[in-house]
Design a protein that fits this description.
CATH class of one domain in chain A: Alpha Beta
Mean pLDDT of chain B: 92
Number of helices of chain B: 16
Strand order of the largest sheet of chain A: 7-6-8-9-10
CATH architecture of one domain in chain A: 3-Layer(aba) Sandwich
Structural class of chain A: alpha/beta
Shape of chain A: globular
Radius of gyration of chain B: 22 Å
Structural class of chain B: alpha+beta
Helix content of chain A: 25-40%
Mean pLDDT of chain A: 92
Number of strands of chain A: 10
Largest sheet of chain A: 5 strands, parallel
Oligomer: heterodimer
């Protein structure tokens, strides 16, 4: 008993104050990409060629956050003259087109579907479906339940049955072998239902987009309401996405 | 050359130097080696200039390899020697080569074979769901079946579990996977060189460093690239951070499953703190983007080193106190002890690796037996336990958590002088033609291994990936024999195997 109490005392209070304050993230973290349009076009081309995900659209001078895995190759290659990855983790969007960005993102809270806020703003139950995810996106969704993020304090929970859920949170590039199970889970959620896509694989097929075994984005199968980019998205990116979309 | 020959771990071998045996000799010798205690690291098929060939890499105290021409059908090895079981099924699925007399010839991942041969499993692949799967059934008046998955209750990967029970007692558990299949091995073959590291890291995101290292070492061997000692130290730190985060997460989850919520929450949070240390190193919580052929992309400068050191110093006593809390609780011991035992003999037959193997008395640890990176300079103790139950699997993690913290603290103190690998289309240096390389690393789940073959132009001819889960899923099935079905979650957590690493 004494050990339990001693441990409890040592652990203290660990929950972050987000969204009131933004927790500090280590400097090497790569969040929202911001593009300098004044750069030499040759450099843009060199970055596009080096990008393992072919996420840079040269003529538009933009970067597709749906494809991007935030590896930072373009930032290092251009020494920050073309792309810099900022520490800003608030990068989710409600429209897929907005993922193609030069760093200027629309406010998620304002362009999110407003009727969802009324319906789910005070209580939101999520059913997670891993559809060929590599377990990184799954892990960083799972941590939302730990004391630091404490998702439940916002009235948001992951539930065991789609029948109890308001939304499905999908991770992974949707393998052929998981497609039916995913669709059946979706069907089992009562309407109106929300579809949230988490991670580069789910948004566009990610690193696996050249495989015939996966879909080229969840939106080719289901209507997606919220797009959360990253490989995997930082837990704070997930948290921001959920709070801004449903509550703000 | 008429017999299996020794090959270096993580070194380049000319394919011409690997003995090409007759199938019968190949079969006899492979069986002999494994029956005498050898283990199967790889056993796969590949196509070379229109001819199908087989290759086996076996492990005793060294690595042994040999190849042969592949017959279209052959007398299976599994019947004589169990460790070949899944490898033969995989080969049948990938290439349509039929192992006659295989006692458990079922599909592995549910996909067409790549040679357009008649399907060994009579599957119709226009159907979306992995159907037509012949589950093992126990028959009898009181027998009932429980089907779980592919979509599970938690935030976890998909797979199907089929229990045959009498009352609460599980007589047999069959685990059917393949839902996560993304075609990784085919993708690796066609990938541009700039995509290769990224793909390797995404084979299993929780084993990013393990698979990333295997890929990098294979490319380095084939391209004759030297890695400096500084980069090796950073890679070693990264692999130990990965082990720490996952082991701590597992111990927390085990507590959750026995309803000891306080340490479950502490370790849930502390796991995140260790993931953040990977982010500190390279900007990604899972270490994605750190390891590249030739070294690492991020150095350990003094500022990062200082923060890393401070954080570890702060976390170490917390970790130790929570460990003490868990392992001194009688309620925890009551649930862990004697639950889901896998006997040493069974573990040996199944070829279990990593903590699951060590918990059943198989001391093998690739960090000690086939040391790469900075491990030749480190002392990795034997963590073998003999009880083979959930307690032993937790206890191995207990030991390894404490050891990994010590290893990291020791390595932080070393000077690390390395040039980060440059970005851009520098080439993945050209690979040597007609060569072969096998790399092994001890990921947190056990032996991760990649085997890479190049053709006479230096292009990738075959890229074979093996996650430790490929060996260990049957260990979980074995642990459930005669165990209460309500103890399944606890046992499952104590193995915590990879679905995507298995499904590829």
């Amino acid at each position: 008993m004494l050990t339990i109490l001693k441990n409890r005392f040592e652990q203290g209070y660990r929950t972050c104050n987000y969204p009131k304050e933004k927790p500090a993230v280590f400097p090497r973290y790569r969040g929202k990409p911001v593009i300098q349009k004044t750069v030499d076009p040759e450099m843009v081309k060199a970055c596009a060629d080096a990008c393992p995900q072919d996420a840079i659209v040269v003529d538009k001078m933009k970067i597709d956050m749906g494809r991007c895995i935030f590896c930072g190759t373009c930032e290092r290659l251009s020494k920050g003259e073309f792309v810099t990855f900022t520490g800003d983790f608030e990068i989710s969007t409600a429209n897929k087109a907005d993922l193609l960005t030069d760093g200027d993102l629309p406010s998620l809270a304002q362009h999110a579907k407003q009727h969802f806020k009324k319906l789910f703003g005070r209580s939101l139950q999520l059913r997670q479906v891993s559809a060929a995810g590599c377990n990184a996106c799954e892990a960083d969704l799972n941590v939302l339940a730990t004391p630091f993020f404490d998702l439940a304090r916002f009235g948001i929970n992951f539930v065991a049955s789609p029948r109890h859920a308001d939304a499905i949170v999908v991770t992974g590039p949707v393998s052929r072998n998981m497609k039916t199970a995913l669709l059946q889970t979706y069907e089992a959620v009562p309407e109106p239902r929300v579809v949230i896509a988490v991670g580069s694989c789910t948004l566009t097929g990610g690193p696996f987009s050249h495989s015939a075994e996966v879909a080229k984005g969840l939106d080719t199968i289901l209507p997606v309401d919220l797009f959360i980019p990253g490989c995997p998205p930082h837990p704070l990116t997930n948290l921001h996405g959920l709070l801004a979309f449903f509550k703000a | 050359m008429t017999q299996f020959t020794t090959i270096p771990c993580g070194g380049r071998v000319q394919r011409a130097d690997i003995p090409h045996l007759s199938f019968d000799t190949f079969r006899t010798q492979a069986l002999d080696i494994v029956k005498n205690g050898g283990k199967v690291v790889h056993f796969f098929a590949y196509e070379d200039q229109g001819t199908m060939k087989l290759m086996a890499v076996l492990r005793t105290h060294e690595l042994l390899a040999a190849g042969c021409d592949a017959p279209e059908t052959y007398a299976c090895l599994t019947k004589a020697c169990e460790p070949f079981h899944l490898f033969e099924r995989e080969m049948a699925e990938q290439y349509g080569i039929r192992p006659e007399g295989h006692p458990w010839l079922k599909m592995v991942r549910y996909h067409k074979n790549i040679r357009s041969k008649p399907d060994v499993f009579n599957n119709d692949y226009t159907e979306d769901i992995p159907g037509n799967y012949d589950y093992y059934q126990v028959k009898g008046d009181e027998i009932h079946e429980v089907a779980v998955g592919p979509v599970h209750a938690g935030v976890i990967e998909p797979g199907h579990f089929r229990f045959n029970c009498i009352g609460e007692r599980v007589l047999h558990l069959e685990i059917q996977l393949g839902y996560q299949h993304r075609g990784v091995e085919s993708l690796l073959l066609t990938a541009k060189s700039k995509q290769l590291p990224m793909l390797a890291e995404n084979i299993a995101g929780d084993t990013t460093i393990g698979h990333g290292l295997c890929m990098a070492q294979a490319v380095e061997a084939l391209a004759s690239v030297q890695v400096d000692e500084g980069a090796k130290i950073i890679r070693t730190i990264a692999l130990e951070l990965e082990r720490l985060a996952n082991h701590i997460g597992d111990l927390g989850a085990l507590c959750m499953d026995v309803a000891f919520l306080a340490p479950a929450n502490y370790f849930g949070r502390i796991r995140g703190d260790f993931l953040n240390l990977s982010l500190l190193l390279c900007g990604n919580r899972f270490g994605k983007g750190l390891v590249r052929p030739g070294g690492v992309r991020f150095t350990l400068d003094d500022k990062i080193r200082k923060t890393l050191d401070e954080r570890i110093k702060e976390l170490k006593p917390q970790v130790e106190h929570v460990l003490e809390l868990i392992f001194s609780a009688s309620t925890v011991r009551a649930r862990f002890e004697g639950c889901g035992s896998v006997r040493a003999e069974d573990a040996d037959h199944l070829g279990l690796v990593g903590p699951a193997g060590r918990a059943s008395g198989l001391a093998y640890d690739a960090r000690r037996c086939f040391a790469t990176e900075h491990y030749p300079h480190l002392l990795i103790p034997e963590n073998a336990k003999t009880t083979g139950d959930v307690y032993a699997r937790a206890r191995v993690r207990y030991d390894e958590v404490r050891q990994s913290i010590e290893i990291i603290q020791f390595l932080i103190g070393k000077s690390v002088d390395t040039q980060p690998v440059e970005d851009g289309i520098q080439a993945l240096q050209a690979l040597a033609p007609s060569s072969f390389a096998v790399t092994l690393n001890e990921g947190w789940r056990g032996e991760v291994s990649h085997a890479v073959l190049t053709d006479d132009a230096g292009n990738l001819l075959r890229y074979k990936v093996k996650d430790p889960s490929f060996h260990n899923w049957n260990g979980l099935a074995m642990a459930l024999r005669d165990t209460g079905i309500s103890d399944f979650p606890l046992n499952n957590k104590s193995f915590n195997l990879s679905y995507c690493g298995f499904d590829l």
